Amino acid sequence: MEQQHGALNEVNSFLDDVTQQIQYKPIRNEIRKELAAHIEDRKEEYEHYGIHGPEAWRKALAAMGDAVEVGIQLNEIRKVQKNSLSVLFVIALTVIGMIGTIRTEVSSGFYIRYTDLFYFFFGVIILLITYHFGYQFFAKNCKKILYALLSVLLLYFLFILVSVYFENYSLISFLNTSLAFALRILCIPFVVGFSYFNRKKKHLPILLTTIITAFILITSSVTFLSDYLIAANIIFIVTVYASFLYMIIKKLFGETKRYQIITYLVSLGVVITIFIISLLGDVKSEFEQFIYPERVASDYWDDAYNSILIRELLSKAEFIGPISLSEEESVNYLTGKWYFDDLSDTDIKYRMQFASENGIILEDILPLHYHNNYRVAYWILKYGWFLFFVLISIILTAYGVLFRMIQKINNNMGKIMALSCVIALSTQVIIYVLGNIGYQLGWFCTFPFISEGKCSITINMILAGLACSAYRYDKVTTEDNYNMIKGRRNKLFIGTIQPKN
Amino acid sequence: MDKKLMNISISMMLLKLVEEQDRYGYELIKELEFRSNHVFSLKEGTLYPVLHNLETTGAIESYEKTAPNGRLRKYYRITNTGKKLLADKATEWNTYQKAVNLVIGGSGYGTTAWGIE
Fold first, then answer.
1. Do B45 and A64 touch (CB under 8 A)?
2. Staple A134 to which of A98, A280, A466, B96, CB 3.0 to 4.6 Å?
């Protein structure tokens, strides 16, 4: 009996030696169980050949080889991967955003608002936290987080409905509309993850995706939200359906590819129809504002006019250096006289109030909130097209690094989630840059990591952190074993191998 | 057999074995020994780094299943990536085998090691 006990301790000691080499502790249990089962199988075979008791255990153990060597080899394969380059690029974009904020506030004669800068620092902290813990949290809580986000969106929608019903619009002013935008974007990886987790349930993934997307669209089809959330809804549809298509192409669903494509197209058709209906009859004008703003521009406060003005000013921008405008041109652009023939003297006087004391400057001419909504256009006009090309090169490199990182992820769950995050980020960049060259889609979109705003920075940092985190934990979270990292520690020892006394 | 050459071929053989049916670690070792006339009789612990490497590269995936004797085992199955990898490796291996045989004048060139072309 004592010999048997000693042999079991040797087995446990072997398993300890192997698992102690594994740096990422949550997978130690998984490896321990697998090796223990193997040793037990081998021991049983020896028993079959008439070798019993401690000798069977010891022979089974001897067949395993050197514990430390096995552990080191396993650790080399199953280790957390550092991903400094992607994280550094995201931080570099954030620094560009911070510098842009400081320069804009200084150039405009404003004082520097430290709260604006605080959110950039806060964003970097969020990025690092999500990078270190995001993927495990996502894998464990994807469903719960999605339900929570959808519940918040529903409450938000109901609150607006009640406010509209009682015609109490002051209630709506309490709501942060940026939050509605950000929540939609934040839902994306969780919707995609939820579909992935249900991928083996035949019709369920596409059905769930359709229902959730429809829900997102319907909850934005009320008063001002329908216009304000166009960009968010487009980003949502593009990202979720692009990720879904990727899953079909990679044959991650049980059904045949042809069947999946048909159901996918039907779902996309339903969603696009709901999206068009959710615009409450403004489809034509939204399209015209995007492509032909001159058809819908009615006054100088109009977003369509802003696009026209931006296109006009950009056509005069220098390659290097600030735009140069004559005094007459400056007056015309400030008042809107260059475009609107029928402006009254009152209109002109009113607009001239926006001129600086020492003469009209670029910042007076640009649309309101240019420092955030037209950040790229402002930089082109202020410093020239060269800066734009430098900025675009940095952004393309940063997103290239992120997409390359996704390409290297082997774990399908991590890959899909990371892909959805990076598509959501890059779609925002495209919509923002288009808006800044005079092609504005709906209301304003955020410029990930570069434009200011607490919701924008926080949400986009979470997306970037999640994507980088999926790469970080790629080698330790394998396909179908995401529940392994839930820390099931109740079966440290299986079968006949018992803990040491 | 040369250890380096053996390590390269073990991944391919493991892929072939899990392509035939889902298998667990111990079963793979036994099958490998049996089918290779005990030529591939490796230290059993060293199987797992190879298996985990195949898993992290997406060639195989694992799931847990309770065996008839009540023991919880980790089974491995091949993925589409793994099937493609196996086909590529088999082609490479056949080319290599043919080339070696051409040089040393062996009689078996042109045959495939695992019946895959």
1. yes
2. A466
Could you tell me if A27 and A122 lie in one domain?
Answer: no
Mutate to test the interface with A, among B7, B56, B78, B85 (most CBs of A within 10 A): B56
The answer to whether A137 and A146 have CB atoms below 8 angstroms apart is no
Residues of chain A contacting residue B55, judged by C-beta atoms under 8 Å apart: 478-479
Q: Is residue B113 part of a domain?
A: no
Q: Is residue B101 part of a domain?
A: no
- Determine contact, residues B29/B44, Cβ cutoff 8 Å: yes
- For the cut 80, the answer to whether the pLDDT of residue B37 exceeds it is yes
CB contact under 8 A, A77 and B49: yes
CA pair distance A118, A115, nearest whole angstrom: 5
Instruction: For residue A286, give its domain range.
Output: 84-291+373-477
Model confidence band, residue B1 (pLDDT cutoffs 50, 70, 90): low
Q: With cut-offs at 50, 70 and 90, classify the pLDDT of residue A36.
A: very high
Question: Does residue A481 sit at the B interface (CB-CB below 8 Å)?
Answer: yes
- SS3 call for A466: helix
Contact A178, A230 (CB under 8 A): no
d(CA A275, CA A473): 36
Does residue A91 share a domain with residue A51?
Answer: no
Q: Which domain CATH number covers B15?
A: 1.10.10.10
- This model of the complex carries an ipTM of 0.84
| B17 domain-assigned | yes
Residues of chain B neighbouring A35 (CB-CB closer than 8 A): 45, 48
Domain count, chain B: 1
Regarding pTM above 0.90, the answer is no
Which of A41, A44, A413 is most worth mutating to test chain B (most B CB atoms within 10 A of its CB)?
Answer: A41
Residue of chain B minimizing CA distance to A411: B58
CA A460 distance to own-chain centroid: 5
* Structural domain containing residue B7: 3-79
DSSP-derived letter for residue A166 is T
